[in-house]
Write a structure and sequence with these properties.
single chain; alpha+beta; Beta-galactosidase, Chain A, domain 5; TIM Barrel; 3 domains; eleven-stranded antiparallel β-sheet; seven-stranded parallel β-sheet; about 30% strand; binds 1-deoxynojirimycin; binds calcium ion; GH
């Protein structure tokens, strides 16, 4: 990764160290401008503009500390600097080959005029597509260890914007999005996934659209050693106020100076596609310190997984419960005959992966403990190293290796993080010994230590520690039920994806995801980083797997929309989530999943509107191949796609996977048609998307 610093310009205002300065300070880049000012009573505030339009009205900044002597004012400005940075860097994997990091930085030095006279800096970075800012507590006499009681950051919006939001559950992001005006935000009628949210508390990334045509996204970058930021909505004034996730004692963050908070981010544009293309959050994260990254491999995988979600198989080996981890002789349990992770079945998946060129096979339910795992708030459920009697680790590793396939490890912690941390070293040693390269982790249920939340400082530190520890072992990770990402995959490029949202799996065991869901996720959850959404379900109606338990259940898209998701939802690790037998019935459509890349040199968001449609084109890493994904909500629509991004003069063969005649997500979801045509950079395609449907296109140089 090379950083080339082009311009660094330092401008000191040269104020004497104690001077009170209430004159506003500004920074800007292109249309985005930021103003910092002290209120008449010495409270720090900021505003953001996009051209002439207000993005954030005057809004408070500051922190309160548990000792009552924090930074809620009065404060004075003792100095400020600006600098301009324009550099570029190459991510280890991603949506584009090179990322430009261009911003103007304003640092404001604040001081308490009264005792204890503490100092605080606020650092703003203004990009052409938004603003990031954070608090920095410098080293100083009289302030070393401190506890944050609350962050006072506000985002006061100028009008009653349309908002795409989920309730502020400190333990789960697995919600459907509500689309309302800010004045109508109310989480009360929404059933809690884990913890009931206060009526006006919602999560970030929060997507907003103003009536005067601005798209605004509020989130955070580089969440390190701090709790996640939630937002309390004032439904009368349209003000958002930060609400940090508390720990078991009610405190927010234990810090030691010098220290800084995560960046608060505001992405803004008058064009929805530019929000999706923004690299602001990644740019605010630190480059990786990993000495090498060539062991990190973007990949596609299948898994012994969906068959458990659709009730065809079980994670557990026996139907006995009330088992203790220590002292149980697993060989003496009576098998239930439905255990998915048995050697013969895993071999079937390995064969399928090998035959179709997919890199890995995830196996869930391979290790002892599943008889007794969910909802007990029990400390010792899994040991992460003992296979069930019918899962032969050595035999499977040899079988997979002979076929050029890798097994993917699974560590469900059942929320018992104390138990996992005690066993991580042994678990990762086991992975190395048995040739595993990646692990999917999971945190279902209430957290142990009891009283901690998934999104509090303690768990944030656990997730980051886990990524770092796996990195030291040259292992990759995909985390489920983690805190939602904040761009830390720049720092830990082995952290390929997280779930931290409502995945495709909800279609298997709940009323499911609305057809609009996947048109909102890239504008919300995916702003922070890739998601393991598990696309690629072909058997849309689920009754055929288990008629009694899956009555009326289905995936809420067409089959073709499942293909398009590989392009519209970026992740370097993508599952082909359905069963081999489902794919074997539609191998012509499965060809798209085989072909599509997971690492890209270029990305063009061609058409997008949150909650309605997204059409994205991406160029495969190191190849002259492009892939297009186009999706719609519950409304059928036409998307007109100009191929002017293709190399001029080059002919391509387009393979177009389209919804079939009469297709719709609920009536005829599996109808599709595949046609081939020659195209070039002057071609225009008219894609017809069914209700809840999509289109997927591969473009390869013609004549090859
Ligand atoms: C929830 C995860 O999201 C899912 O993918 C996994 O199969 C189950 N937990 C079991 O760990
Ligand atoms: Ca989950």
């Amino acid at each position: 990764m090379k950083n080339s610093l082009i311009v660094v310009l330092l401008l000191a205002t040269g104020l004497p160290a104690t001077a009170q300065n209430t004159a506003p300070l500004t920074a800007r880049l292109d249309k985005v401008s930021l103003t910092f000012a002290l209120s008449p009573n010495g409270q720090p505030t900021y505003t953001v503009q996009f051209g002439p339009k207000s993005v954030i009205k005057s809004s408070r900044l500051g922190l309160t500390l548990a000792d009552g002597k924090g930074f809620d004012g009065p404060l004075e400005v003792t100095g400020s600097e600006t600098k301009d940075v324009d550099e570029s860097w190459n991510p280890v994997w991603g949506e584009v080959k090179t990322i430009r990091n261009h911003y103007q930085q304003l640092t404001v030095h604040l001081h308490q005029p009264q005792a204890p006279g503490r100092r605080l800096n606020v650092v703003f970075r203004v990009f052409s597509d938004g603003v990031g800012f954070r608090y920095e507590v410098p080293q100083q006499p009289g302030l070393s260890y401190f506890t944050v009681q609350e962050e006072l950051t506000e985002f006061n919006l100028p009008a009653n914007h349309k908002a795409f939001w989920i309730p502020g559950d400190y333990d789960s992001n697995e919600y459907s999005y509500s689309t309302t005006r800010l004045s109508e935000v109310n989480t009360t009628p929404i059933e809690a996934i884990q913890q009931k949210a206060a009526p006006n508390r919602i999560q970030t990334p929060l997507m907003l659209k103003s009536d005067d045509g601005l798209y605004v996204n509020i989130h955070e970058a580089a969440l390190v050693n701090y709790p996640a930021m939630f937002l309390n909505v004032d439904t009368k004034t349209y003000g958002l106020r930060s609400q940090l996730v508390p720990d078991a004692t009610g405190a927010k963050a234990y810090l030691q100076a010098p220290e800084h908070t995560p960046w608060r981010t505001i992405v803004v544009s008058d064009k929805a596609p530019e929000v999706l293309a923004s690299k602001l959050i990644l740019n605010l994260n630190e480059p990786t310190k990993f000495p090498t990254t060539d062991w990190i491999k973007p990949q596609k995988f299948v898994g012994v997984w969906w068959e458990m979600h659709v009730n065809k198989a079980s994670w557990n080996y026996a139907d006995t419960s009330n088992i203790k981890l220590a002292g149980t002789d697993w060989n003496r349990l009576k098998p239930n005959g439905r255990h998915g992770a048995n050697t013969a079945n895993v071999k079937r998946y390995i064969d399928f992966a090998a035959q179709h060129g997919l890199q890995s096979v995830l196996v869930e339910g391979w290790n002892v403990g599943w008889e007794d795992w969910a909802n007990n708030w029990k400390e010792e459920v899994f040991d992460f190293v003992t296979p069930y009697p019918d899962f032969n680790v050595t035999e499977l590793q040899q079988y997979a290796a002979a076929k050029g396939v890798q097994l993917m490890m699974h560590h469900e912690t059942s929320g018992s993080v104390t138990n996992y941390e005690r066993r991580q070293d042994a678990a990762y040693r086991f992975m190395k010994e048995h040739n595993y390269a990646a692990v999917k982790t999971g945190y279902v249920g209430r957290i142990i230590p009891r009283g901690e939340h998934h999104d509090g400082q303690w768990m944030v530190n656990h997730f980051n520690h886990t990524a770092a520890l796996l990195g030291q072992n040259q292992l990759m990770v995909d985390m489920h039920e983690s805190v939602r990402p904040t761009g830390l995959h720049r720092t830990y490029p082995n952290w390929l994806a997280s779930e931290a949202a409502r995945g495709n799996e909800f279609n298997a065991w709940s009323t499911g995801n609305l057809p609009e869901h996947e048109t909102i996720l890239p504008f919300t959850r995916l702003m922070g980083g890739p998601m393991d959404y598990t696309p690629g379900i072909f058997q849309i109606k689920l009754e055929s797997w288990n008629p009694a338990q899956n009555k009326g259940r289905q995936v809420h898209t067409t089959l073709v929309k499942q293909l398009a998701l590989y392009v519209t939802m970026y992740s370097p690790v993508q599952m082909a989530a359905d069963l081999p037998e489902a794919y074997e019935q539609h191998l012509d459509a499965f060809q798209f999943i085989k072909d599509v890349a997971v690492d890209w040199d270029d990305t063009r968001i061609l058409l997008a509107e949150p909650g309605e449609f997204i059409t994205t084109a991406r160029k495969a890493k190191g190849k002259e191949e492009w892939y297009i994904g186009s999706i719609t909500d519950e409304n059928p629509r036409q998307q007109v796609v100009k191929l002017d991004f293709l190399t001029p003069g080059q002919q391509y063969e387009a393979t177009i996977y389209a919804d079939g005649k009469g297709a719709s997500w609920n009536k005829n979801p599996q109808a599709y048609q595949i046609r081939k045509q020659k195209v070039n950079s002057k071609s225009v395609l008219k894609l017809q998307l069914a209700a809840g449907g999509g289109a997927a296109i591969s473009l390869k140089p013609a004549g090859k």
